[in-house]
Amino acid sequence: MARFFNGKEIELLAPVGTFDIFKEVIQAPCDAVYLGGPSLNMRMMRKGYNFSLEEIVQATEIAHELHKKVYVTVNNLLSEDDVEEAKDYLRFLEGAHVDALIVQDYAVVMLIQEMGLNLLVHASVMMNVHNLETVRLLQELGVTRVVTSREMDLQTARYIWSQSGMELEYFIHGDMCVAHGANCHFSSAVFGMSGSRGKCMKPCRWEYRVKKDGNIYPADYPLAVKDMYMYENIPELIESGICSFKIEGRMRDVNFILLLINSYGEAIDRYIEDPIGFDRTVDSDKLHENRKRDFSTAYAFGKPGLSNMNRRYEGTGKFYSTGKVFSTPTAERSLTIGRVAELKERLAQVQRIEQSTRPELSVRVNNIEQARMAIEEGIDHLYLSGDVYLPDVPFTKKNIIELSAIKGATKLYLGLPRMMTELHFEQYGELLSRERLGIDGIVVTNSGAIHAFADKGYPMVGDTSLNIYNHLSAEMYAGLGIQRLTISPEMTADHFTGLLEHSTLPLEAVVHGSPTVMYMEHDLYANTEVQESVGEENNHYVDNSILVLMTDKGENPVYRDQHGRNHLTMAKEICYLPLVKELAEAGLSHFRIEGATYSVSQLRAIICAYKAAIMEQTSTGELFEQLDPVYAGYTLGSLHFN
């Protein structure tokens, strides 16, 4: 089965969660299906909605007899323990003759190349592909299709397609995440269950109160977004260069999926047959009547604002409108002496291939005052944030010149925005192409930035948003020119130590601070600008000017950056101070403090404590006792979990 418009193939791509569902869906007017196997995919919370190896073979044979395609999701991050299993699984999938794999981790791309396998690769939405430079890198790596970032508008999609010719797949219907793909670590921090490894516990579906300026606002479910609905915009999708129309729903029942396939399939065919006389609304009423949540076109035509927030069928954190509650508000775990002792024992077992020298201290700052102080304190590496939290203003060229003149032995790095638009690439490309800046490197936040700026002559440090989870992806980035990599903040203790054991590259980890656990285009501050206050209450740990999401388990500050994006941070502070010696002996070469949210004096105290620990001037136990938390206490984040 194939559909064409102006000589361009259009594919309707359907989800199937079980073999029984597949047998009905494959007979419907879709062109391809996607499914998950028994492991290594993003639906590991519901194993009943994945195929066995035998079922994958049977499904592929049936689909090919009908001239349709089967794509298999191998789309979670791989731990070191997963690598050997992945090799066997990839060999099996090649033998099963599946049509392509949907992949998040660059390690899978590397394995396919190293093993010489004949498997096509589609970049998962979890790669968060959102700019042309990332697409060009993926093309060089042999990737043949990109599932675009959920935040990509159709105008950007059309530009990327016209400039690259890359096949683009776009979600047209179904459940959407509020955060950028692979940029939500909330579930990992609270439960040790990684959203990037198919085990998200959905804290975005909790009921929150929104608080700012001493006022409480009636947001209810401020992170719960509406379902995607593009039924009435098929012409715009085709015109934008989208080749694959993707329906979300591998855990939906067969009748619901068939309704969507039949409605969208019939509409696409009607448009191809008569684009001038096309009626956009034939099945609109039917789709609205059978919706699970309310509908939105999300980011297809620009930022949707509060209109994208769902207020229907949420209940008390209910997910998929079935009454099932994935989780209820849960406090971040507090650092305990017992857990520290367990981690020390585990770190002592790490067999590092190369012994490291004295670890070095890195600090990310949000303003020029923090930067001057950090230089005064003699830190090793100073990162100027590319996502500056308001009310601070972005670092200017004048700031860079000033800091480079006084930095002394401190190495100075220019940080890039986490998500970079085409405008960002023009701006930073121009800055980095002029006369040499007095910086010692750049902190790169996405693979497109590596591709664009590797030839500018500046050393590159890989940021947390690259989500490094195994030595294979680390080596891939090193091959692209990254000199030092920051470990994924989602790593549990076993995975963290596993990477230390297997990687020979310099590795950095965030050891202190209140890092971003959810990064989003959605602007929560808009709640306070358009809604009336329903009560009064001051913030407990941050200034009242900072918005917080609160439950009965804690307050999570949310910072707005200069790009208008929101960073939901932890209620407690990450603190690895008691583990400094053991981390260094296990091979962690760089310790990072996320300093953006601290005052200058608070950050100075933290820097001094870690410097003393690194230099072994004072015992870490004594230093820890002397350092009081700024926020709701200390936590080990994902390291609380094995």
UniProtKB/TrEMBL annotation:
UniProt protein name? Protease
Q: Does the keyword Hydrolase apply?
A: yes
Q: Which UniProt keywords apply?
A: Hydrolase, Protease
Keyword Disulfide bond listed? The answer is no
Top-level division of the source organism's lineage:
Bacteria
Q: Name one Pfam family in it.
A: Peptidase_U32
Q: Which GO terms describe its molecular function?
A: peptidase activity
- Which GO BP terms apply? proteolysis
Which InterPro entries does the entry link to? Peptidase_U32, RNA/ubiquinone_mod_enzymes
